[in-house]
Every structure is written in C-alpha cells, then in structure tokens.
C-alpha cells in the first residue's frame, strides 16, 4: 500500500463556538497517497475548500486528526506544515516582478539573495518561464500568471501542494493546456497534491484519485474510471459527466429495463426500482424505426467537432452529444435512439 502523504482521521469542522452550529465537514476520513494527485470534487457548498484550508492549517478542525507524511500536524501552524497553496486568484504581488514574486517565500525565510534568485530561476525554468524574470504580473497572460503562482509554491519545495480552483479564471482552451501542465509537473516531480474543483472533466483529466463530496461527507472515492463507470449512488451518478437520471427497473435476470430499452449493467442489482444514469455521449442516433426509443428533435446546436441535441422521447427530454457532424438535424426531425455500453451506469433506486 502506498505511503500516505495526507491523511484525515474523522475530521469535523463547524464555524463558531456554538455547539449547535451545523457541521461543514462531517467526520471525514481519507488518504492522499504520497506522490499522487487527489481531487476533491463536488458542488458549491459541499465543504471541499474547507478541507483544503484544514490541510493548509488556515482552518483548525473541530475534532479529528490531520497527518502529513505520517506526522500529526493538527495543532501546527501553516508555517510549520511544509505545505503550499496555489489560490484561484493567483495572489501575485502586482508591484513585484516575476523573479521577486517567486523568490518572496525564500526571502522571508532568510535565504540569501543570490541563493533565492538562483532557485527561483531554476523553478521558473521548470514551468517554462525562462526569461520572464523582469516582467510584472500585469504584463503576463492568465496562463503565465498561473505558472508564476505554481513556481512560487514549488520553489519552497513543499511536502504537499494544494490547488484551490486553479483554472476557473482561464478560458476553455487555456484551461485544457494548464491542466495538462499541472498534471505533467506533478508526475515529473512526484508531488503530493490535493486539488479542488467543481469541474468533472478537469477532475477526470488530472487525478489519480477523486473524492466526490456531498454536504460535508465523502459520497465516493476512487479512480476516475471507477467513479465514471461504477458510481455507488444516485448523487455520484448524476454528478459525474453531466448524466441524466431516469427511472428504470432491475429484473431477476440481471438486466435493467428503461422504457423500451433493455440494459445489461456491469454490476448486478437486486430486482426492483433502479436509477439509470445516461451520459450525453452514450446515446446513438439511428434512422426512425431502427432504434428502440423513438425521438423528435426539440433543439439542435453545431459545435464544430460535435452536435448537441435535445430530443423529446417517452422517457422525457434526452440530451445527446453526437460526433456525427456530417449533417445537423433540425427541430421536428424524427430519429430513434439506442444506447452504447459506455457512459451508462445503474444504481439502486
């Protein structure tokens, strides 16, 4: 078993001294293995940023223990934990140039100017910013500012690196390239990283482990593949991958009936009501009469590499993403739909 880099043991958190105040974090236990990236994923208000702040020492848990590298750090200050956080806003000093921003932590810890600048330049090179020493943050793009923020954390050689929604201020194309850079850097340097986001695609792309949180609890933890293909609850099934949830019925032979469709799920459920989570890419378009589910186009949109449709069916409105862009169906067009095996999950109803 991998050595834990971060460990939570029955951690709770409530704000204020009132014992009747609601818990924001409710008895959380999990591990982030050393040298891996774990994403805390969930909707706004689920407690994921509070968890990150508890790891950093910016918030104290109400009860429970926090361990980093096997050492109990529950009562230690942020400066005593060897942890760095990269904030959503980057928090760069606007009056300082790039090299001074990156070297700042070394300067205040007492490193000599020559040593701090050498280490800062080496770290800037590791994030692809050689030659940017004298620029101000205002002279950098959003992606470059993000890299400076990462370099400022890395130069301190932290035991744990924390990211709080690091890509939310970037446009879609830059988000994709930056998440690849963060993942590449984490793997190359074997960093232990806890990463907070509400973006499922981002979590799937960067993570060794995903912890889905719901109202201060762990709804499910596992690899990206496990959470996408085998969600353990209706909440996780609906949250991962823009899935729509439909009422189905699990039959004695192990199949699941969804209206006129029959599904053979990867996990066998007891006979009775079931919920079927269907992601938009799981639907396959067929000519009228060739698929089991009759459908009429309500809305359509061309996105270049895909078409998006909303169909009216006997199951209700169905959202479909199709890679067939040879033609765009128009509202009122009739089709039929069938289901692929990928992108369909079944959980007990």
pLDDT < 50 stretches: none
Helical fraction: 10-25%
**Which structural class is indicated by helix and strand composition?**
alpha+beta
Strand content: 25-35%
- Rg over CA atoms: 24 Å
For this structure, the CATH topology of the largest domain is Rossmann fold
CATH class of the largest domain: Alpha Beta
Counting structural domains, the number is 2
Strand arrangement in the largest pleated sheet: 6-7-8-3-9-10
Silhouette: globular
What is the name of the CATH superfamily of the largest domain? P-loop containing nucleotide triphosphate hydrolases
**Span between termini:** 34 Å
DSSP helical segment count: 8
How many strands, which pairing sense, and closed or not: the largest β-sheet? 6 strands, mixed
Mean pLDDT figure? 90
Order of helices and strands: EEEHEEEHHHEHEHEEHHEEEEEEEEEE
Key words describing this protein structure:
Rossmann fold; five-stranded antiparallel beta sheet; 349 residues; OB fold (Dihydrolipoamide Acetyltransferase, E2P); alpha+beta; six-stranded mixed beta sheet
Overview of this protein structure:
The structure is a single chain. The protein is 24% helix and 35% strand. With 349 residues, it is an alpha+beta fold. Helix 2 (98-108) crosses helix 3 (113-126) and helix 2 runs parallel beside helix 4 (142-154).
């Amino acid at each position: 078993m991998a050595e834990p880099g971060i460990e939570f043991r029955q951690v709770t958190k409530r704000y204020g001294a009132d014992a009747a105040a609601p818990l924001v974090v409710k008895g959380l236990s999990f591990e982030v293995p050393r040298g891996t990236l774990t994403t805390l994923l969930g909707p706004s208000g689920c407690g994921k940023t509070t968890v990150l702040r508890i790891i950093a020492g910016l918030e104290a848990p109400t009860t429970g223990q926090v361990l980093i590298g096997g050492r109990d750090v529950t009562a230690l200050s942020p400066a005593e934990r060897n942890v760095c956080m990269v904030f959503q806003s980057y928090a760069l000093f606007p009056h300082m140039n790039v090299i001074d921003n990156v070297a700042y932590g070394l300067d205040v810890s007492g490193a000599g100017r020559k040593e701090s600048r050498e280490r800062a330049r080496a770290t800037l090179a590791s994030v692809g910013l050689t030659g940017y020493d004298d620029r101000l943050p205002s002279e950098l793009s959003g992606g470059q500012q993000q890299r400076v923020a990462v370099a400022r954390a890395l130069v301190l050689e932290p035991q744990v690196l924390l990211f709080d929604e690091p890509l939310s201020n970037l446009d879609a194309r830059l988000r994709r390239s930056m998440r690849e850079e963060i993942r590449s850097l984490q793997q190359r340097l074997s960093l232990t990283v806890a990463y907070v986001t509400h973006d499922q695609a981002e979590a799937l792309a960067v993570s060794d482990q995903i912890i889905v949180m719901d109202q201060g609890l762990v709804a499910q933890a596992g690899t990206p593949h496990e959470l996408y293909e085998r969600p353990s609850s209706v909440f996780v099934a609906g949250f991962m991958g823009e899935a729509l949830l439909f009422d189905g019925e699990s039959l004695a032979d192990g199949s699941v009936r969804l209206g006129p469709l029959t599904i053979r799920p990867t996990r066998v459920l007891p006979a009775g009501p079931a919920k079927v989570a269907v992601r938009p890419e799981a639907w396959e378009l067929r000519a009228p009469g060739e698929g089991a589910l009759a459908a009429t186009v309500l809305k359509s949109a061309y996105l270049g590499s895909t078409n998006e449709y909303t169909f009216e069916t006997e199951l209700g409105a169905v959202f479909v993403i199709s890679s067939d862009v040879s033609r765009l169906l128009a509202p009122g067009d009739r089709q039929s739909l069938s289901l692929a095996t990928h992108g369909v999950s079944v959980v007990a109803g």
